[in-house]
Write a structure and sequence with these properties.
Blueprint: H1 24-27, H2 34-39, E1 43-48, E2 57-61, E3 64-70, E4 76-80, E5 94-95, E6 100-101, E7 108-109, E8 115-117, H3 126-134, E9 142-145, E10 148-152, E11 164-165, E12 174-182, H4 186-191, H5 198-206, E13 220-226, E14 229-238, E15 241-250, E16 254-256, E17 269-272, E18 276-284, E19 287-296, H6 308-316, H7 324-329, H8 333-338, H9 356-373, E20 388-389, E21 394-399, H10 407-424, H11 430-447
């Protein structure tokens, strides 16, 4: 066989065959890590309410092996998996009125971790009495809300108020809790929400149309940093309409986006709300969960997607249970982020201007982690006690035909005007804000004036 002449061709594989480093500060979240300590300052969903029963369920969150269960009196407990006596698994424990009993020697623990009984021991012995006074099974506080079970895994003297987002109470919405497992680090999944341009390619071109034709349009991208809220907008021209779609991240891991199937840019829509209300929760350094509810109704997605498969498509663009060949033909978000490996080689990335949202939110998390190491507690979503946290993940589609000007600059200005108007209403009472935003959008569309609202 004749040798080919490769001497005048450039192949750089040999010079790039070492794996770059990971960003350990962001990626590592197990107990004792700086990133893990940061995440432990917030409430996180840990399970679906529907998953919890009087049969204990093993879960892993932030690298900790835990057991979640329901007592006979319907109280939820979240405790360390290993019994402190001889380390037997409480996944085989027996739930009772007052808590969970270890199968091995019958020790009984309350949902707060208190040792209630040590039946094999003399209850009057000094050792047994001292143990009950001084030691507890590791346990965490829980709150059940709208089909999700939340927990706070940090130091109890730093426990924050459970945040109340406006997305929890949108009139007319029907919600469906869901859980999606990802075989990769949490940052890879979180990054996608601050990458609005990927929707045009992954969901509109590479895999065909997974949501609607309008997603394939590459729009004008912009990013907004507002405290610990980060927004990425993609403003597209669809015929005579301008479509402003906004993805949202509130640190550390609360995410929202525009609708998946309700909006395609062809019909007007005024401050349509998010397709999902979601948290990306680390299981360990190599796995994470999306725990969320999908939102259905006039301002969410169509009610016909209110099923398991519909939630998977809203989350990832495709259903999860597919053959490898099917995933190759039509990859969704899961394939894109898991294909990077368990932890992507962050130091080998070549970030571009469209990655600005990823750069700024990662930079902020690093800064907050370092500040916590210096003794400064990270900010919470709510700025004052009892506050309802206002969110901005949405779709707005306005009928605004082309003008005799540069249309790319024009649609970008529309996107900016929509966002500016929303921000200016941040101090409005929560019960009035949505209605006022919608009124302003209608006025903007009718008047054609995008500056003086």
């Amino acid at each position: 066989m004749k040798n080919s002449n490769f001497s005048n061709k450039i192949f750089s594989g040999y010079n790039q065959n070492s794996l770059p480093n990971i960003d350990e500060l962001l990626a590592k979240t197990n107990p004792g890590t700086p990133g893990g300590e940061y995440l432990r300052r917030y409430w996180h969903p840990v399970a679906l309410t529907s998953e919890i029963s009087e049969t204990p369920k093993e879960i892993r969150i932030l690298g900790e092996d835990l057991v979640v269960f329901l007592t006979s009196k319907k109280e939820i407990g979240l405790v360390h998996k290993a019994c402190p006596h001889r380390r037997a698994s409480l996944a085989f424990g027996k739930t009772e009125d007052r808590g969970i009993r270890c199968c091995y020697h019958g020790w009984l623990f309350s949902t707060t971790g208190e040792i209630l009984e040590t039946p094999g021991e003399d209850p009057n012995s000094t050792q047994a009495q001292n143990l009950k006074k001084k030691f507890r099974l590791g346990a965490y506080p829980v709150i059940e809300f709208n089909g999700l079970v939340f927990s706070y895994l940090g130091p109890m003297d730093k426990i924050p108020e459970f945040p109340n987002y406006d997305a929890f109470q949108i009139p007319g919405n029907t919600t469906r809790p869901y859980r999606i497992e990802y075989n990769c680090n949490w940052i890879q999944v979180l990054d996608a929400i601050m990458d609005p341009v990927h929707t045009s390619f992954l969901h509109g071109q590479s895999s065909g149309i997974q949501f609607s034709k309008g997603f394939a349009e590459v729009g004008e991208i912009d990013f907004f940093e507002r405290g610990i809220q980060y927004l990425g907008s993609n403003t597209r021209r669809i015929n005579d309409n301008i479509w402003v779609r906004v993805n949202e991240l509130i640190l550390p891991n609360f995410t929202q986006a525009g609708a998946a199937f309700a909006a395609d840019g062809t019909k007007t829509r005024y401050f349509g709300r998010s397709s999902f209300t979601r948290w990306v929760v680390p299981v360990d350094d190599h796995h994470c969960l999306a725990l969320a509810w999908a939102n259905f109704g006039d301002r969410g997605d169509p009610i016909e997607y209110n099923n398991k498969e519909g939630c998977e498509r809203i989350e990832s663009g495709e259903i999860m249970d597919r053959t490898f060949e099917e995933k190759q033909k039509s990859p969704g978000d899961a394939e894109a982020v898991e294909g990077m490996g368990y932890i992507t080689a962050h130091k080998g990335e070549h970030l571009m201007p469209t990655d600005q949202g990823i750069m700024i939110y990662r930079r902020r998390i690093r800064k907050l982690i370092k500040s916590l190491q210096e003794g400064k507690e990270p900010p919470q979503p709510q700025k004052k006690k009892g506050e309802v946290v206002k969110t901005n993940g949405q779709d707005t589609i306005l009928r605004i035909p082309k003008r005799n000007i540069n249309d790319r600059k024009f649609i970008k200005s529309i996107g900016n005007a929509v966002m500016k108007m929303q921000f200016e209403l941040d101090d409005m009472l929560i019960e009035n804000r949505d209605d006022q935003i919608i009124k302003n959008l209608l006025k903007m569309e009718k008047s054609g004036n995008f500056k003086d609202l």
